[in-house]
Amino acid sequence: FFSPGFQVAPETKAFFFFFFFIPFVLSASLHGGELVVTYPYDYSRHPMEEKMFSPTPDEKVFKMLAKAYADAHPVISDRSELRCGGNFVKRGGIINGAEWYSFTGGMADFNYLHTNCFEVTVEVGCEKFPLEEELFTVWHENKGALLNYMEMVHRGIKGIVSDKFGNPIKNARISVRGIQHDVTTGN
């Protein structure tokens, strides 16, 4: 899945392979520097366009996941526009990644396109590199939101796809009418 000549750091490549051997269905990437939850696509379908809304076929699911985190975060859910992240208040503390800024190579896009994992990116705090004494506060601001987000794994369809003898079927394609994005069963 890596194009010839495409340079990937060894640790990034290892993480990509990890997702294939341990099939996650939900993940979050934690960043610093803002207070917002972004969701795929992070790369605009029109690379010449900056800040262009670029939804996935699962837009409604991603918005629900992002809102689950944002609504449970005490600062992101604060309606004050005068705080860090206040420019996202009218959006409910969430935004499509490419609409905020478009970039290639993000884990959320990779996971959506190449695995069964739905990932959002959480900007956990205003400081890009918080000081050690700020980490306790950042943790407590995000703890409940992380737990709420993790509980979202129980939403949707789950079960085992099996043959007529009850044996699990590996790599069975699951399609949902109206959504142009299939998932497959685990190995």
Automatic annotation (TrEMBL):
* Residue stretches making up the Peptidase M14 domain: 1-153
Name a GO molecular-function annotation. zinc ion binding
Q: Which InterPro entries match?
A: CarboxyPept-like_regulatory, CARBOXYPEPT_ZN_2, Peptidase_M14, Peptidase_M14_domain
List the keywords (alphabetical). Answer: Carboxypeptidase, Glycoprotein, Hydrolase, Membrane, Metal-binding, Metalloprotease, Protease, Transmembrane, Transmembrane helix, Zinc
Please list every transmembrane segment annotated in the UniProt record, as residue ranges.
Answer: 15-41
- PROSITE patterns according to UniProt: CARBOXYPEPT_ZN_2, PEPTIDASE_M14
Cofactors that this protein relies on? Zn(2+)
Q: Extract the Gene3D superfamilies matched here.
A: Carboxypeptidase-like, regulatory domain (2.60.40.1120), Zn peptidases (3.40.630.10)
Give the GO biological process terms.
Answer: peptide metabolic process; protein processing
Q: Which cellular component terms (GO) are annotated to the entry?
A: extracellular space
Write out the catalytic residues in the record.
Answer: E123
Q: Name the family.
A: Belongs to the peptidase M14 family.
Q: Protein name, please?
A: CBPZ Carboxypeptidase
- From which organism does this entry originate? Pomatorhinus ruficollis (streak-breasted scimitar babbler)
* Encoding gene, per UniProt annotation: Cpz
